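Q: Could you predict the 3D structure of EamA domain-containing protein?
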Amino acid sequence: MALFGSRVADWFWSRPYLLLTFTALFWAGNSIVGRAVRDILPPAAFAFWRWAFALFICSSIAALSCWDQQRRAFISTSCP
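A: Sure. Here are the predicted structure tokens for EamA domain-containing protein:
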């Protein structure tokens, strides 16, 4: 199953109001979590871990997409 070529992904990316709603929810959630951990974690450490988590998520999505493309290229060149 292609990660970005599926019907679910096409449906999801064709809904701008849904994407804007998720943006606002993630932004608000980040603010709430930031206020909750301000006494536990220094702001610089919180920013580092937030970016590390985002990098992990984006890298995972990119790796899945690249792996799928490599698999398809291998299958198309291997099979007559």
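Q: Anything worth pointing out?
A: The chain has a mean pLDDT of 82.
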